Structure formats: C-alpha cells, structure tokens
C-alpha cells in the first residue's frame, strides 16, 4: 500500500466514524417525528393508564350472544368490579353476519344479536360502562365467521362510531400477506376521521414487533401470540412482553393478551402471579372468565385494589425483570411518589428464599423503606435497608410496594 492508498483508507475510516456518530441523532429525530405522528394520527386521548374490562374470547370463544354480553355488563356492576375500573365490555370474534348489508356495512348476526349492536351499546352505556368490539385487518376474522375490514376501513370505522363503540380490537388473520405496518395505519386514520375517541387495540401478535411502530398507530399492541390457560404459556407471554418494556407509555401499552384468571387451568397461586405480572407490566387488564359466575377465591384475585392501583399508577412505566437465577425471578419498576414496585416470582417447582438488592431495583444504597405486601394486605412492621428477603412458594409470588422513609 503506498501513502496515497493509506490516505484514502484513512479518509474512509474517518468518514465511517462520522456516519456512525450521526446515528444517535438521527434516531432522536425519528423519535420526535414519531411523537408528531402520534399527535397527528391517533391523538384520541385514551389509554392514559392501561385499559381495564372484560372480553368474551377466553371463556366463550365463538359461543356468544347479546344475553351473555348484557348479563356480563350487569355482573361487572353488581360485583363492584366496574367501580374498581373494569369498564370495557368487549365483544370478541363471531358477533357479525358473514354477509355485509346491501350498503356494504357490517351487521350483527340475527340469530345471536337480534337487537343489534347499537342497542347493546346503549344498554352498556346506561350502566356507566363502555362497549368494545372486534374486527380484523384482513379479508376475514380469525374464526372465518365474519368479514374483515381490509378495504372497508372507513365504512366500518363509521359504523362502529355510529353504534357508539368505545374500543376496537383489530386482529390480523387472512391478510393476504401484506404488511401490518401498512394495514393497521389505514384503520388508525379511519377511526380518527370518525371524530369519536375509540381505543385502538392492535392484535398483530407481535409478528413485526409492533412495540417499535405502534405508538403513533394504536393505544395498545399485542406483543405475543394468543395466551392459553396454563402456567407455562402464561409465563412465556410475560417473558416475551417484558423485552419491549421501554416502549410502553401513557397512551400506548404493550399487550401480552387477556387474563385467563378464573378459567380453571391454573392454581390460585399461579393466577396471583398472572395478575401481578400483568399489573406491573402495565398490561391491559381484561378479565377473561365468566363474571356472571365467579368464585370468591377468583374474585379476591381480580378485585385486589392494591394490585390494580399499581397497574393504573399515573407514572405509566412498565416494570422489568431485573434479575433471574433459574426459577426465582425478580421484577421491579418505578411508581409515582418515589415508590418502587417489587415482584418476587418463583417459576420453579420448589420453595425458594429470594433476596432483592436495592442495586438491582433502582433504589440508592442505604435507602430505608417501608414495605407493603399487596397480597397479604399488610404493612410489614420492620423497615428494610439495602435488601429484602422473603420465602416464595412454588409457582407463587410476593408483591410489594417499597416507600422510602424520609
Ligand atoms: C335480520 O333481521 C332483520 C329484521 O328482522 C331483517 O330485516 C334482515 O333481513 C335479517 N337479516 C338476515 C341476514 O337474516
Ligand atoms: C344466549 O346463550 C344462552 C346460553 O347459551 C341462552 O340461554 C340464551 O337464550 C341465548 N340468548 C340469545 C339471544 O341467543
Ligand atoms: C359456575 O362455576 C362453577 C365453577 O366455579 C361451575 O362448576 C359451574 O358449572 C358454573 N355454572 C355455570 C352456569 O356456568
Ligand atoms: C442485606 O443488607 C444488610 C444491611 O446492609 C446486610 O447486613 C446483609 O448482609 C444483606 N443481606 C444480603 C442477603 O445481601
């Protein structure tokens, strides 16, 4: 290599370094650009805290009708669950007729929703609740029992708004292989054009990492495939969802799918872990069992106001897994007023003594804290400094709020 070639090589290296130095600032530009999009595209003011309510899918699947929806609305009120924040009554797949009407509009199935969705919305609203509905960003919904909205976005958004719909779960089946990043935004604009604030839940199953593009498009985005009512599946949804923690914020949340609590496939301890992780992950809390017929044990879990308050904390920061050593897993995240939420989760088959160190959970060393146990509903008599140790049962958890004592 002669000196001229060396100079050229050097110039290339310097140029490459300059380009690399530019990356962070262009990433910053993308973020602020995204914030502009967010204001322009959706800006519906919804989802400042994660949505709470019920959805028909996990318990009823396609076996739904207007009686079940009405009775569920009644039960949400009579059990007191609606006062705790469970306000959305969400009809999932299978509510519409397979044929659109002569004007191309979606219509509910005569056999199961004879009074129509508008009447149902009026009823649900009269109880102080909100009505959610389900559609699909493809040619059919996943059940293949009703039409999708691809190509009909404006018409369907208008129909939903006219009926008084408050929430749209938008699935991803039969999409012809085109990109969700294109299809979902069309519905975002269509919803915006209706002028009615409709919570927009992207159900894209995490295929194209919607956390990375969902904020200007929807109010929540599924990060995973469907949940099943068993321990391993539930924990795996939680783990996949955790990776995207930094993208959650007021107005746009990661969604590891709806709750299975009360459907019978897990123990009470496992269901407590389920609600605890969903709460600290700032996930939508959508009950998935039959609330018309709920046992006291299950009610005590889903109605735990202290755990719900963590989910609804106005700081809106998703907790992370801060340490795991095999089965014992420590999750933590900040809450408003300098508090920290701590979850000691034991995913293994044996009891474990677990220790959380302040270094791992974002508390300065020497900070003295008062500890509230959110499942035992008691404030521990002892104050803690530098660490906290507790015995955690198999497939169980301890959930605490740590408040610095000044
Ligand atoms: C549903 O019922 C309405 C009113 O009874 C009727 O006008 C309509 O044709 C029915 N639709 C279907 C698809 O059966
Ligand atoms: C809805 O389903 C329930 C139970 O499957 C049944 O008792 C009820 O009559 C049905 N109502 C309608 C409107 O189909
Ligand atoms: C109510 O729930 C219990 C289990 O908790 C179940 O055995 C029973 O069949 C349910 N009843 C109805 C009407 O679904
Ligand atoms: C916890 O912190 C205390 C006080 O600093 C210290 O004495 C103890 O060794 C720590 N325990 C563990 C398990 O780290």
How would you describe this protein?
It contains eleven helices and 17 strands. The chain is an alpha/beta fold and about 400 residues long. It folds into two domains: about 50-310, TIM Barrel; about 320-405, Immunoglobulin-like, CATH 2.60.40.1180. The protein has an eight-stranded parallel beta sheet with strand order 7-6-5-4-3-2-1-8. Strands 9, 10, 11, 13, 14, 15 and 17 form a seven-stranded antiparallel beta sheet that branches. Helix 5 (about 155-165) crosses helix 6, helix 7 (about 230-240) packs parallel to helix 8 and helix 8 runs parallel beside helix 9 (about 295-300). The longest helix has about 40 residues, at about 5-40. The model is unreliable at about 10-40 (pLDDT under 50). The structure holds 2-acetamido-2-deoxy-beta-D-glucopyranose (NAG) (4 copies). The site of one 2-acetamido-2-deoxy-beta-D-glucopyranose has 3 residues, from loops.
Helix and strand arrangement:
Blueprint: H1 3-41, E1 52-55, H2 57-60, H3 66-78, E2 88-90, H4 117-126, E3 130-136, H5 153-163, E4 167-171, H6 180-194, E5 199-202, E6 220-222, H7 231-242, E7 253-255, H8 268-280, E8 285-287, H9 296-302, H10 305-311, E9 320-324, E10 328-334, E11 340-346, E12 352-357, H11 358-361, E13 368-373, E14 378-379, E15 384-385, E16 387-392, E17 396-404
Parallel strand pairs: 1-2, 1-8, 2-3, 3-4, 4-5, 5-6, 6-7
Antiparallel strand pairs: 9-10, 10-11, 11-17, 12-16, 13-14, 13-15, 13-17
The chain binds 2-acetamido-2-deoxy-beta-D-glucopyranose (4 copies).
One 2-acetamido-2-deoxy-beta-D-glucopyranose (NAG) binds next to helix 3.
